[in-house]
Specification:
Strand content: under 5%
Number of domains: 3
Radius of gyration: 23 Å
CATH superfamily of the largest domain: Aminoglycoside phosphotransferase (APH), C-terminal lobe
Distance between the termini: 32 Å
Shape: extended
Strand order of the largest sheet: 1-2
Largest sheet: 2 strands, antiparallel
CATH architecture of the largest domain: Alpha-Beta Complex
CATH class of the largest domain: Alpha Beta
Length: 229
């Protein structure tokens, strides 16, 4: 919303704003081209600007360990010896790269191959607990304080169609965003040394969440989200 307001005040095209956004899980299905197109579509809606798919920058990762060491093909005996005989106090980088256990950890807990086996991705443990597009969409809408019209437009841009069920799920995740940040703020109010009004922050988030939970709209959203029509 702030970006949109600033853009409205800039009448001189030579002072146009260049918008840059980041996302960990905005699009995860299809090939790279379709993922870039989907991200560009959502970004165009968010920033009220024409964002080309070619402007979407993706990442390319390279394994740190020996690519010949593949989980599932490493003999159990090699893994046992890697645990019992490995001495991190004297090991050098080369020893880490060739160690079967390090290769297993990297490819089992740290990285994952795409279905086509050509691209490596980082396993994002912060967000992988709920890798649902509506989670990110709802959180974005809540943080940007989108009104109902903008939320509907964001949802339609992402899914490519008007979808009342997904819009309801997105709005429920927006509610849960307030609940989650309430908990975070309450913890920070107790432990943080930063000079910031965390009490006011989490109280405002909780008040907004509580207002939704006690409203008729909450039941309507639950019903719409459960509907398969």
């Amino acid at each position: 919303m702030l970006v949109r307001r600033v853009k409205e005040r800039l009448e001189d095209p030579s002072r146009a704003i260049r918008c840059i956004g980041t996302s960990a899980t905005m699009a995860s299905e299809g090939d790279e081209g379709s993922r870039q197109a989907k991200v560009a579509q959502v970004a165009s809606t968010l920033f009220a600007a024409d964002i080309a798919a070619s402007s979407v920058v993706t990442e390319t990762l390279v394994r740190s360990t020996d690519p010949n060491l593949v989980p599932g093909r490493i003999p159990e005996g090699d893994l046992r010896r890697a645990v019992s005989e490995f001495d991190p106090e004297v090991a050098r980088d080369a020893a880490f790269r060739s160690n079967p256990l390090m290769a297993w950890i990297e490819m089992t807990l740290g990285l994952v191959l795409d279905d086509d086996g050509t691209r490596l991705r980082i396993v994002d443990y912060e967000l992988s607990g709920n890798n649902d597009p509506c989670f990110d969409l709802g959180n974005t809408a809540q943080e940007a304080e989108f009104d109902d019209e903008l939320r509907a437009g964001l949802c339609e841009s992402y899914f490519g169609r008007s979808d009342p069920q997904q819009l309801a799920r997105m709005n429920l995740f927006a509610l849960m965003s307030d609940v989650g940040w309430t908990l975070w703020g309450a913890i920070q109010a107790k432990i943080s040394t930063i000079d910031y009004d965390f009490n006011g922050y989490y109280s405002a988030r909780w008040d907004r969440a509580l207002a939704m939970l006690e409203s008729n709209r909450f039941a309507e959203l639950l019903e719409a989200a459960a509907s398969s029509a």
